[in-house]
Each structure stands twice: as C-alpha cells, then as structure tokens.
Amino acid sequence: MDIIKALEWRYATKRMTGESIPHDILDAIIKAAHLAPSGIGLQPYEIFIISDKLWKEKLLPITMNQPQIVEASHVLVFAAWDNYTPERIDKVFDHLNLIRNADTTISGRQRNFAKQFFGKMSKEENFHHAAKQANIALGLALATAALNKIDASPMEGFDPVMLDEVLDLREKGLRSSMLLALGYRDETNDWNLPLKKVRKPLDEFVKKVN
Predict the structure, then answer these.
(1) Closest CA to 174 of 82, 106, 68, 47
(2) What is the mean pLDDT of residues 71-92?
(3) pLDDT value for 54
(4) What per-residue string of b and e applies to 26-65 under the rule 16 or more CB within 10 Å gives b?
(5) Taking a C-beta distance cutoff of 8 angstroms, is the pair 15, 186 a contact?
(6) Cα(146)–Cα(149) distance, rounded to whole angstroms?
(7) Which of 6, 148, 153, 210 has the most CB atoms lying inside 10 A of its own CB?
(8) pTM
(9) Are 29 and 74 in contact (CB under 8 A)?
C-alpha cells in the first residue's frame, strides 16, 4: 500500500474492537515518530504508551468519555516540554556530540542559537512551539499506522490539566499536547466508517504564488 492509498483508507476511527495490534507494528509506529524532524533537532517531547485496561479506564472521564480510549489497543500520549531551558538544550547537544564523536565546537553555533532563540520567548510560547514539533511526530505515526492497516484516532478532546496530573507530567517538566488511539475499527458500531471522506477542493487548498 503506498502512502496516498493508505491515507485514503484511514479515517478518524470512532469505535474500535479492543483487539491488540502486533508488537512489531507498534514498534514501527513509535520508530517513525522517533525519526520525525524537529526544530534544531531538539525533539522537545516524549511519548507515553498506555495499554493497561485500568489505566485506559482512568483516562476515559478525562477524555470526554470517548470510547476509543478504552477500545483501543494502545493510547499514545504526546507530551511536550513545558519549556526550553539551557539545561535541556545542553543535554541534547552533549548527546549529539557523544554519538557523533565530535568536538563540542562543531555544534556550538546551533547550541548557542537555540539558547538565544528560546531564551527570548515566554515559557508558554516555548510550550506551544514544542507542541507543534510533537505534532510532526504524531503525523508520521498516523501515516505509519495507516501503511500497516492500523486504525488511528488523533485526539485533542481531553482535559490537559487533569491528564497532566494523572500522569505526573508537570513533575517531569512536560505537558500533554495530543493523544493517539491505535487499534482496529469496529465495522458494526462505528458511525463514521461508512461516511465518505471529504476534504476541501484541491484548488482551494493549494495556492500558487507567482
């Protein structure tokens, strides 16, 4: 299945069967998110994987009682940095230098640029920047799921304050940004399945600048 056919196949799945997805496919979805590009390569987010039934039931009232939460095989929580700090930036570039066995002066320009750029922004602005980077990873996870015939529902309908509290994200310097429910469509009960996929006309979506 090529990427266009895969994206035509996928839809925002509203009901799932509860069947577990294979571990190797889950690993591929996570790997795709891990390989996503991010601003200055900082990867300012983490992914929490929830598969335990009790944990999913705990999340249900926080997520507007959307059934995908408990019917999914796995729920991924994308949690972005609550702030870009010099310490976090240093950790990224120290790791980069270690893996590349490079002198610190080689990446020094990017390191300093990151500190200066984010240092001029408020903590809230930095969080929103980090959350947008996390969405790039979420998009690649969605595409990889579709390529493997795994249904996925990206979800922003949740109480972030309560979710952060339940997962102790604030203590980790993180804030929840998006959820992704993964599983298999319930063809009998999903009202969204038979509906035709609708997007705005392509000539309204794409504009050429001459």
Answers:
(1) 82
(2) 98
(3) 97
(4) bebbbebbeebebbbebbbbebbebeeeeebeebeebbee
(5) yes
(6) 5
(7) 153
(8) 0.94
(9) no
